[in-house]
Amino acid sequence: MRKKVILSGMRPTGKLHLGHLVGALENWVALQGEYQNYHLIADYHALTTNPDTSEIYQNSLDMLIDWLSAGLDPTISPMFRQSQIKEHTELFLIFSMLITTSRLERNPTLKEQVRDLAIETIAYGHLGYPVLQAADILLYKGEVVPVGEDQLPHIEITREIARRFNAQYCPDNPVFPEPEGKLTKFARLPGLDGKRMSKSVGNTILLSDSPHEIEQKLRSALTDPQKIRKGDPGRPDICLVFAYHSKFNSTEVDEIRLGCESGALGCVECKKRCALKIIETLTPHREKRLYYEAHLDEVKAILIDGEARARAVAQQTMHQVRDVMKMG
Ligand code: TRP
């Protein structure tokens, strides 16, 4: 039986953090096997907010190492850079005719970025970000797109473009599926300051952090400001450390809630126990990472191989696209 296709990707921001793992990567690994996965390094998308490419290759390798260390298997799931497969730019151009600028201006993820990064005027390519993402997904006929919740508006735009294309060029025999987004249970893990975990804010725990770094970072994490010392009752539901316990320490989480609420458990002790669980979770990851860092040629070969396999699929789709458009 044909497996459904998963397509997902990330911009190459370098070493990944817990938010990436919990928001998306974990899902990619869990669904691998049941689906046919493709994973893309969105290096063109990275240019929308930063034109500097001096570190883009190193950042791509660093991200790929984290993917591999998390359990993505390159023999079954091609991993590739978007920029190495020119079909992405071709389909992007065709799709850009099938969506209005006003629709793209309404994209809430773009509005959020403009606000957060204090962008004054938006580049043409930045406005078109979701159109390129639609090309990424549909070139591989992606049906399921496991992403963080900030990406759902882009999946919606992808569905609209797929519908428009099919209606315009191949109403009786649609070329493209209408993909669905798939969220993880913990779609948003807070950062160490309680805000969204993000590299640019500096409130992250990296998957590659050492046990010592993880302990130190947790020690400085924000907790309920009303719980000043042990004995004070705390409010776990507003505490990011408790959010981490819920994710990484399911066996003790009930007891931690009771201890926090009654005051019997102090924040220092609670953070120590949390750090231990995160360290435990990340240890296998860190060990695999060391292996790949020492075998960089292997990592580069995985990319080249993934790109060749992805390219073959992308070429096939573009062939169909040109065919139905009578531009073959
Ligand atoms: N926009 C996604 C992000 O910032 C990255 C991305 C690019 C992507 N192309 C994609 C995600 C295709 C899913 C599918 O995280």
Give a verbal description of the structure.
By secondary structure, the protein is mainly alpha-helical. The protein has two domains: 5-189 and 296-324, Rossmann fold (3-Layer(aba) Sandwich); 211-290, Orthogonal Bundle (Tyrosyl-Transfer RNA Synthetase). 53% of the residues lie in helices and 6% in strands. It is built from 14 helices and five strands. Strand 1 (5-10), helix 1 and strand 2 form a beta-alpha-beta unit. Helix 4 packs across helix 8, helix 4 (87-95) crosses helix 14 (296-324) and helix 8 packs across helix 9. The longest helix has 29 residues, at 296-324. It is globular, with a radius of gyration of 22 Å. It binds tryptophan. Tryptophan binds next to strand 1 and helix 8.
In N-to-C order, the SSE pattern is EHEHHEHHHHHEHEHHHHH
Instruction: Please tally the β strands and state the result.
Output: 5
Percentage of residues assigned to helices: 40-55%
Relative strand content? 5-15%
CATH architecture type of the largest domain: 3-Layer(aba) Sandwich
Query: Which residues form runs of ≥5 with pLDDT under 50?
Result: none
The helix-and-strand class reads mainly alpha
Tally of helical runs: 14
Total domain units: 2
Using the CA coordinates, give the radius of gyration. 22 Å
What is the CATH topology assignment of the largest domain? Rossmann fold
User: How is the main sheet built?
Assistant: 3 strands, parallel
Q: Can you identify the CATH superfamily of the largest domain?
A: HUPs
CATH first level of the largest domain: Alpha Beta
Major β-sheet strand ordering: 1-2-3
Straight-line distance between termini = 31 Å
Could you tell me the mean pLDDT?
96
The global form is globular
Bound molecules: tryptophan
